[in-house]
Amino acid sequence: MTECKNRTYGLKCIYKCGHCLNGVPCDVETGSCGTECDPGYLGDLCDKACENGSYGPSCNFTCGHCLNRELCDKGTGMCSTGCDPGYFGDRCHEECLPGMFGTNCSYFCSGHCSHNESCYHVDGICKIGCTAGYRGNYCDIVCEPGFYGINCKEKCSKGCQDSCNRIDGFCRCNAGWTGFPKCNIECPSNFFGIDCRHLCSDHCGNNDTCSGYYGTCDGGCQEPFIGRICDHQIRAQGPGTLARIILTTRFGVERQQRHLAGFSLYISNTSRREEGFLCYKDLSTLELPDLDFSTRCIKYGRFVIFYNERIGQTFYSSSRYENPALTELCDVVVRGCYQTGVYGYSCNINCPINCQGRRCDIVNGYCLGCTEGWSGSKCNQACPSGWYGLECKLSCSGNCRYSDTCNHVTGRCDRGCTSGWKDYYCDKQCDPGTYGPNCENTCSGHCFNGTSCSIVTGNCDNGCYPGYTGDLCDTECLPGYFGMRCRDNCSGHCLHNQSCHHVDGVCKNGCTAGYRDTQCFNICTPGFYGMKCKETCSHRCLEICNHIDGFCSCAPGWMEPPTCNTECPDGFFGVDCGFQCSDNCVNNETCNRFEGTCDRGCQGSYSGLICDHQVFSPSFKVLVTYKEVDCEHEGPSPAGSHDGLLEKWKEKDTLYWKRNKEYI
């Protein structure tokens, strides 16, 4: 037996041993490692490196989730470039701890996944939905005002003041509503206000009930009651619109004029001048007031108050003022219309409909003030475009749909808001997660990194989450594609020709025969084949078998793949028994089925490893000498000489042959 060195084997030691465990030499004849292979290699000769996706002793371990599907170290299984999102550890086998996700498990879940479950460790999505009060793939978007509950699908009651609690819909009641805890019951008849706590007045006109919101009597009050809720009774001559006040004194002397100097006239709805309107004040410094005095004062009121004073420590000119201030009035005439809302000599013309309080100048009908949204002396001109409200002083939001101006009275956008705006006045931007006119549309929820879409267009300006495409990121990748911008191709090896998952490329129902791992990109570990790579290749395969069906070329001496369990029949040898034995083995024996050699030698004049060379006896003279050359011949080359039997050389003009000892 030949002794090979330097971890070699085979005939003449020309083959290099494989990766035997710990450097142990292989068998010098077969090359077999006998024990085990170094981690990362397999096969009898330990010359087959682990294929993609496997590592360790006998390649029995599967690589973890190395970043961007990079291959792990075939020996140790370590991921040199880091882990895919959702995994950590040197070998990237461990999923992120509950509550964490993403690259290096460095992101926190929203904490609002349904049933207190953790989000998906790869992308942070709450796969079974959100707890009440939250929405979106990541459950990180609170319900927009006006909505609550699971997935924010429940609408708050109309009776809620502002918005309701986003989780359970509880709220404080608005005026006109009651019903704990969701304020979903309108006030019953004869009640009004917050929680319907107040009783309506019994003095509404036509015995109508009041408004449940403010308690107002929309049809007016019964006489003699007034007020917003008809709760004040007129006990004296009713109020009216005054046009002129005439004062007359008893005696027309200068002293009376100085007593009268400095007087004031007020119009008030009460008996307190401080609460009234100053209609006239004598401010002259030279002239004395007329004793027959008349002034125009267009004002609505119930009391005419005459007032004069002399204040101690105050200097009054003796030429104008007389102390004390005495009231020496003989007649007081107040002219005007008793009824409100009329004007003219006979008080029979109705004031313009847009006069504030329906009160106007009783002489010319000019309004004493306009209701909201109107202007002009008779309040018959709508506010200019872009303005609304009392005295047209309020500016529209400018966000009405179709470039409309707002309602000149209320300031609201009657046909709704333009894209990106909401609320009655279209002065509030859309909440995150909504967009479009009146914020009626919901974002796709698939914008990159959980960002919200554009409140105007709904577009995801920073791109889409893996698995989605389109401006709105509302379209899943086409079949056969997945990942960021749908640029990654599926492996094409998902079971039943199904497409992979559009987000992560995973084949949810497994792989076709010959492929493995979640995305089915990797073929079976060398030495295995078939569904789920559970079938083991025959150990008699010449090389690694086909990863799909297990077929291979059989090792010398064997046939009938994929099992290669059938020995070569007599007369054949080699790989797949594809070679025919020589007919020249001694005693007509068959050759060795592995190498084709005639183990017991060749018959007759045949020689060679497989007895395929014939040796002819030379007709020439053999000179026997005692030299190292066994046989010598002088002369021409013997007929039928064989390079394997005789070696020849030339010295000067003589040819020599030497019998090769190997064939003696």
Largest sheet: 3 strands, antiparallel
Helix/strand/pairing class, anyone? mainly beta
Beta percentage is 15-25%
Which geometry do the CA atoms define? rod-shaped
| Number of strand elements | 54
- Ranges where pLDDT stays below 50 over 5 or more residues in a row are 619-664
Please, what is the average pLDDT?
83
Distance between the termini: 20 Å
Helix content: under 10%
Number of helices: 1
**Strands across the major sheet, in which order?**
24-21-26
Cα-atom radius of gyration = 55 Å
Describe the structure.
- 1% of the residues lie in helices and 22% in strands.
- It starts with 7 loop residues before the first strand and ends in a 5-residue tail after the last strand.
Topology, element by element:
Blueprint lengths: L7 E2 L5 E2 L24 E2 L5 E2 L4 E2 L5 E2 L24 E2 L5 E2 L4 E2 L5 E2 L25 E2 L5 E2 L4 E2 L5 E2 L21 E2 L6 E2 L4 E2 L5 E2 L25 E2 L5 E2 L6 E10 L4 H7 L3 E5 L8 E5 L10 E10 L1 E5 L21 E9 L4 E2 L5 E2 L23 E2 L5 E2 L4 E2 L5 E2 L25 E2 L5 E2 L4 E2 L5 E2 L25 E2 L5 E2 L4 E2 L5 E2 L25 E2 L5 E2 L4 E2 L5 E2 L21 E2 L6 E2 L4 E2 L5 E2 L25 E2 L5 E2 L8 E2 L6 E2 L13 E6 L2 E6 L5
Antiparallel strand pairs: 1-2, 3-4, 5-6, 7-8, 9-10, 11-12, 13-14, 15-16, 17-18, 19-20, 21-24, 21-26, 22-23, 22-25, 27-28, 29-30, 31-32, 33-34, 35-36, 37-38, 39-40, 41-42, 43-44, 45-46, 47-48, 49-50, 51-52, 53-54
